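Supplementary Note 3. Input sequence used for the single-chain structure prediction.
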Amino acid sequence: MSLLRTLTLTTALLLPHGPAPAREILSLESRRLQLGRDGRFEWDLHKDRKVDAGRLELHFQAHANAGECTLRIWQRDVKLAWPVLLNGRRLGSLTPAEPAQECVLAVPAGTLREGENQLVIEAPPALDDIEAGPVFLELRPVSEALGGARLDITVADATTQAGLPCRLTLTRRDGTLQPLRAEPAREVAARTGVVYTTGGHAVLDVPPGDYVLHAGRGFEWSVSRTEVSVKRDETRTLSLNLIREVDTRGWIAADSHIHTLTHSGHGDASVEERLITIAGEGIELAIATDHNHHTDYAPAAAALGLNDRFTSVVGNEVTTRQGHFNAFPIAPGAAPVDAGTQDWAQLIPAIRSTPGVRVITLNHPRDVHGGFTPLGTLQFNPKTGRHRRAGSLKVDAMEVVTSAAMQSDIHLLFHDWFALLNRGHRIAAVASSDSHDVSRYILGQGRTYAAAADENPSRPDLDEVWRSYQQGRLLVSLGLMTTMQVNGRFTTGDLATGLGDEIEVEVVVQGPSWVQADRVELFANGTLIRKQSLNDPHRPGEKARLLWKLPRPTHDVHLVAVATGPGVTEPFWEIPRPYQPSSKVFTPRVIGATNPVWLDASGNGRFESAYLVAQELIARHGAGTEDLREALKKCDASVVIQAESMPEE
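The predicted structure, written as discrete structure tokens, is reproduced below.
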């Protein structure tokens, strides 16, 4: 179905944001329209909305244009490519992005014709529910349409007053991301409504109007908000301060899954823009993982003067038809692995033997690529932890949070991970961004904290960092940071020994003031054994400190603490919707989790997995016997599942 609307304009209508001569602006569509497919909806929030059209087609009267004009289209919830054509000439596409924003497209000279003109926004082949409109045509070039006033912005550390690399998010009062231009050119990375700066200073050209500006520097820092009105030909000077709110001493902030358009071939971030976003989000260890390419950020970081802000590491996302694996660090001159290899028994050892490699991660294991899902039902039993390729699953870590590839259920990959741990796999949990873009998916939103000295982000002890990856001394973060101690001395990655009849578990939850935590859960072998609701009135820093006393288990268990809270929905750090949703309902959440503390409940000086315990019980009592059932009663639900499934295997 298409919406056909012919307008004969006798007078031009004013654009509703920012004054401009009326003769320069034509209103092509004044309404906000729901575009999609009748009887189908992508998300539950669109379930009861009336679809106005499957595509948008507008007819309007105009004069031929001798110079460049500007097309402005308000949009929201755009995931796929919606081509925009004027008189059959493609101007571009709507911006693939969920937040409300205005898409600005240049109309080249000679595109408009005398009399009737046709504007079409074509729908993609797949379902994509969006909102589009109003639509305006400005009879002046983009450079003029995006200007007329200036904002001169400086962002500093509130303690030292030194300029800070940061992210600026500029919206209109209604939350719409504002198109803009930013300077100095080599010191900023800019997209609609978003500007990253290398040193906390940027000058923005914008239309006159009323705006809301947010400045932030990633998870560990406060967000500063201010409202500003700017008139035509006016320059407003703004100074904002940020405060470090989360204590991360002893932890290195890492994003181990980062891409560039330059070397991965999709997304929109050049190498230089990528480095500016890394600095702006406060990442201390940036691991380059372009697809089947060894990217070295160091020369560009030095040229931009950013090599004192973070440490860059050469890595590679080995992208195959049978899964994606990140490998790092990689020695200079090492040859990339043959990505055509399908057999994990050959592929993973080849990755491991790449010169320099210390860590291999399994990426977004529930995502489908080329018809293959690493933890899909054909490969993996999420109850028993049995994997068809278990003998070849020799990786150090697995992404349980990938902020650019979220799951509908934020706990799904945690339960998969618990099952693998119970099966005997020693795989650490990590979080990353998988960002390919400057602003669509925020770099470092999903991040991993590795236990290591962090006094100087440009000179960390990388051997210590890689040992932390190998030993599971890591924290998973998407808006929260959770740490845990057992008996006051055993922490994430430790084997807790010498346990008495009772153990003490202390859990601390941290986060910035702009994030809330409302729940903390403690899992033993993947079974929920404690939970606590939280009242967090946007406290900065420590949001909760809980102490639980537990009876010593009758067998070894791994303990993991997980804190969650409501997802951030404002455009300065909005939690994205799932990449490959399994549900039409999505409730965004933030999360912070530990890796395991391993409890040596048996006192034999080593950790025995649930699967190993089950094997021993069956060997001692015999499968299916009454004695076995009595023995199982003394074990947790995870062990019962493992033991009951074994005779069938």
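The longest helix spans residues 412-423. The longest strand covers residues 541-551.
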